[in-house]
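pasting input
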Amino acid sequence: MHLEDSELVFQFKQPSSKEKELAFTGIVKKYQEKLYWHIRRMVVDHDDANDVLQNAFIKVWKGLANFREDSQLYTWLYRVATNECLTFLEQQKKRASVSLNEDENGLSNKVKADENFDSSKLEWKLQLAIQQLPERQRLVFNLRYYDEMPYEEMSRILETSEGSLKASYHHAAKKIEDFFINN
Amino acid sequence: MENRDLILKEIEDVSPLIASIGNRNVFKVPEAYFSHFLSSVLLKICKISMVESNKLGIYSVPENYFEQLPVTILTRIKADFELETSELLTIAPLLNSLDKKNVYSVPEQYFKSNHPIRIIKDKNKTRLLSFSKFSRSIVTYSAAAIMAGVMVTGVFYHPGQSNPLDVTKEVNNLSDDEITGYFDDHSVVYAEDSSNIGDEINVTDQLKSLSDEEINGYLQENQSNMKIDTFK
């Protein structure tokens, strides 16, 4: 039986640790795949995605007791996962700059390193094009194109106006098209 | 989720090429990944909890320490305040009796006013330029050179201190013609000077008021320097 988000949050806030674990299990089972794919498209590599997803759920475990329910649980979980993603990518950039690696094409290389990568397929070429985008545009494009998320929801997750998100999506699509034309 | 057709139409409007590719997922996950994910997260949470509890477990606190802590702190604050009060009462009872009310006031709306503007105004003030080490040394040496110049000039152009001029001796060395020529050249000046003196003291009148004995007595005293027969 699937509980509603508000019921899961309520159950998690109960003093009993058994109740807490039950609620957490329900939340993980309900959202793990959605959050995984959201993260995977950003970090590309499965092991990295796994680390980020686990860290995100650990943050959820630690922070859910203080969740004020100003927003939906789903929105909050996406925000936690997005922040974890951005933190991870930031750390990777720092590591690359410390080791003096020219790692600007790091994500593209990860796409090419995927065991199923096929350069002749447009879907993979689209992935290469997406990895060329700035982080924010990449987030917006993925959330809209793959997760089919309404701008209103996206606005709450990324704390950006809907107009700005629409503009980002438009710019991202144009850049991807340019990539296809020039490559 | 928003209507898929709406999103598809949106991407078709922006980029028909991307719309034609479709949003099929190309990535794959290891087999049974999601069925094991929960247990791996719970295991990690358990490990973290153990580490955190171990960190705390090294030290222990007295029973009911945290429950009583607020009361303990408040008691301490109260005791400190009483100590301060009694100290002032001993040193200056009058001061202790005065109210600590603030007597100063600020202009109305001061704290609500637009402070950034004030800060910008302050920034527009003339900047203070610091002397560099080089500039400081130039100024120091310049000052020293000026002082040396003043001292040297003083020595050469102020001879009264080191070489006193004997006027009587110098005048005695002059011939009568030189003296006469000098007075002719400076007659206007001396006429003016004597007229000025005359305004203040009329020498002729003064001499007339003296008796012949007084004049002769004066001449005898100064006979060595002058030889005048008579004034009258």
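fyi Residues 41 and 142 of chain A are 7 Å apart (CA to CA).
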